[in-house]
Prior knowledge:
Blueprint: E1 2-3, H1 8-19, E2 24-28, H2 31-41, E3 49-53, H3 59-69, E4 78-81, H4 97-122, E5 129-133, H5 150-170, E6 176-182, E7 185-186, H6 189-193, H7 201-211, E8 218-219, H8 224-231, E9 242-245
Nicotinamide-adenine-dinucleotide is lined by residues 3-4, 6-10, 28-30, 33, 55-57, 82-85, 106, 133, 135, 182, 184-185, 188-191.
Amino acid sequence: MITGGASGIGLACAIAFANEGCDLVLVDIDSDELETARERLEAGNSRSILTISGDVSDENFVQSLPDQIMSDSGPINVLVNNAGISPKSVPLHEISYADWSRVLKVNLDSVFLMTRALLPQMLKAKNPSIINVASISGMVGLTKDFLFQAAYCASKSAIIGLTRQTATEYGEYGLRCNAIAPGWHLGTRLGESSANFAGEQELLRQRVSQRVTLGRPGEAHELAGLFLLLASNASTYINGSVIIQDGGWTSS
Length: 252
Ligand code: NAD
């Protein structure tokens, strides 16, 4: 099950899982994009693709998900908490409380709600794995030549804490929980429209290229291997980890 699976990094993850023959459940608030994604994924090897349109920060909607997805395939093995939004880039003292709260609700509360709702059935699955999509902005501060997004950064940092606590509480039951912390990736709506760079793709590309040691931004599809690793038996001893993929941004 992938939240925010209709676009960008979530869709790249869905394509990778589809190519491996997984049954997929995609949850996204954008029903049109979800339909387009489903058509695209039908070309892969998935045995089944279920799309559910809704808001993963809405408690009632999330609570209804387990009943909507019970299928012949059994419980959810892998939950990818990926849905997220990026707010306007403004200094902290100019952020309205409403904007702060909206970002925390969509980016962080959704991870709690989804995990809480799906955990009971995942504990019945073989090698269950939760993969939370954080960000390097949850690990280091970002300068104004990129963006000022205190709420976004706080939400991503909190996802890392939630990941480690989930891993600690449920590891003994065989459930693993890890986070991926991407640097700047293009091929996504959020990555290309974020804050300072809406409509300024070339400037964005230049700034990121100067910042990272690999000299270029990432592409969403380059995260596919990490999702496959954390979802599969190739990572049965990885738990509570945060895996950075940022082209070297945070290493220099
Ligand atoms: P994206 O906008 O292309 O994809 C996000 C998806 O989440 C969209 O399909 C959107 O409709 C969905 N979504 C948003 N709010 C939702 C809600 N309330 N309920 C259900 N679905 C909702 O952007 P992306 O870059 O692919 O972002 C995916 C994740 O990756 C986000 O958590 C983002 O913070 C994280 N991330 C992205 C980058 C990057 O450079 N692109 C870097 C670090 C982290």
